[in-house]
Amino acid sequence: MAKNTNFISILLKVVLNLLSYFVLLSIGQKKMLILWFGFCNEELKIKIRLMMKTIKNAIPILVTFCLLHYSASLFSQTVTPVPEGIFSSLKAGNSKELCKFFNANIELVILDKEGVYSKNQSEIILRDFFVKNIPNNYIKLHEGGKDASKYVIGRLSTSKGQYRIVFLMKNNKGAFCIHQFRIEDDN
Question: How many CB atoms lie under 10 A from the CB of residue 145?
């Protein structure tokens, strides 16, 4: 028991001395640091030098480990892609298939008509748009976002002209659903 107490007291002295050493070092007080080091007994000086050498050797290893851990966590994040069914339904003008990716209620903006609609209402409005503007092609121009939400910007070529399509998807209980869908004139 006496050896444990002696070891703990020496360890405590070393830790306190190292802390004061780092404080003095961070302040930049070299003269005070030299004075402080002069008051330490020889046994403590040897232990401090050994500990400092160990710390200096461990710092590059610790930094490398932290960088590897951080970079591995960045690359391990899986990015959920936007479902291909959205793009194929836009190319085909299939409102029924497109609405399968909609949230229960969706903010829909089609040219001059805008509002918050249910899936069924949205399907009818989109079907009407696709009947009047028969799609020829859809091109995805940009995709972005983070874990909780994504957005896509694209161009829909139809029989009556080109339209800009913008939609916002949000993570809803593990699945991404379209919450906002816009069709704007792009002529």
Answer: 17
For 38, the domain range is: 2-76
pLDDT in tens, 55-77: 666 666 656 665 665 555 455 45
* Contact partners, residue 37, CB within 8 Å, separation at least 6: 21, 45
Torsion of CA 158, 131, 106, 162, to 10 degrees: 10
Contact criterion met (CB below 8 Å) for 138 and 126? no
Would you say residue 28 has pLDDT above 90?
no
| Residues 45 and 123 reside in one and the same domain | no
Residue 96 maps to which CATH number? 3.10.450.50
| Domain final position from 76, 106, 135 | 76
The mean of the pLDDT values for the chain is 78
Please give the model's pTM, rounded to 2 decimal places.
Answer: 0.59
Q: At what angle do helices 2-27 and 30-39 cross, to 10 degrees?
A: 160
CA 37/CA 21 separation, integer angstroms: 8
Residue 174: DSSP 8-state: T
